[in-house]
Amino acid sequence: MKARWDIFCSVVDNYGDIGVTWRLARQLAAEHACAVRLWVDDLRAFERMCPEVDVQLDQQWQEGVDVRHWSQDWAPTPAADVVIAAFACQLPHDYMEAMAGCEHSPLWMNLDYLSAEEWVVGCHGLPSVKFKGVQKYFFFPGFRPGTGGLLREAGLIERRQAFQRDLQGRQQFLQGLGVFPAKGARLMSLFAYENAGLASWLDVLAADGQATHLLVPEGRILGDVQRWLGVEALAAGDIHLRGTLTVQVLAFVRQEQYDRLLWCCDFNAVRGEDSFVRGQWAGRPLLWHIYRQDEDIHLDKLDAFLALYTQALSAPAKAALIALWQAWNTDSDMASSWKILLEHWPELTVHAEKWCLEQALQADLATALVQFYENWI
Question: Which reaction is the catalytic activity of this chain (predicted)?
Fold first, then answer.
């Protein structure tokens, strides 16, 4: 009999929470034969990830997942065998009562935010609070052994490598998006939050001796791009040329297409959590725009990841990468750090693939969750 899983997602902003939970729900259903209900409180945000979703329906099936609208008018619902509160969201009180009323208590887990900090290993899998005898557990994704790993579908790395070897396939994919980079141009993607340092980066790209074709999916960074270009508005399909820099705005695409977009690019600027992980699976040099938190505690998380990611780099390449990431995440001038980074491009490219393959040696997040449940029962 299939284990029944309930995943609760409260959409805060930026699509990262729904992006992670939608990937997880699909993988649990497709690869582990789990019966998954995905509870989402904002179906319009979910629609960006899954255009087939009907935002008017309270219940529907999408790609093997039972998608439910998590509304304020909560109807009595039996609790599942496994309950995941994504990113510490608060479950409906009536549902928690239903968990407490089960003959056999469900496994209740808080799927926490991704972090490379050392303390995560010590907290992963530990019990948290109780509700009327129902125990909640911490479950931390992570990069280190002893954590829950990263979301990675079966065969993902092999599919990515095959796609990157297929020049014609990559060209056809890009052409389907209306992208026709000039021969020899550096292809880059930019998906980020607002950033005052962007103008200095675009300035240096426009003055570079090598052409760059910059793909900018619709998102919060568009306002900064628009100001730098000096145009009144930007929309999907717009293309602007400044010096040796071509800026092209792309429509918001579904997750599978975004993966392929990252695989096509030579360098990817990513943000938050979901695109950050997918950028690593692309095996290409990347730049992470971490979600800003009060009192700059996000910079501790940034430094923790950089300490792990750069361990195998030469001292000059390590310094160059760290300088670029820190400039980007403090809204600082990007010009000098980008120029220095280019000096180490071959090493950083090799390193990105090596890091990807090393991370892929660990169990993926969905498999780790299933194993945790099986050990628990």
Answer: dTDP-beta-L-rhamnose + L-arginyl-[protein] = N(omega)-(alpha-L-rhamnosyl)-L-arginyl-[protein] + dTDP + H(+)
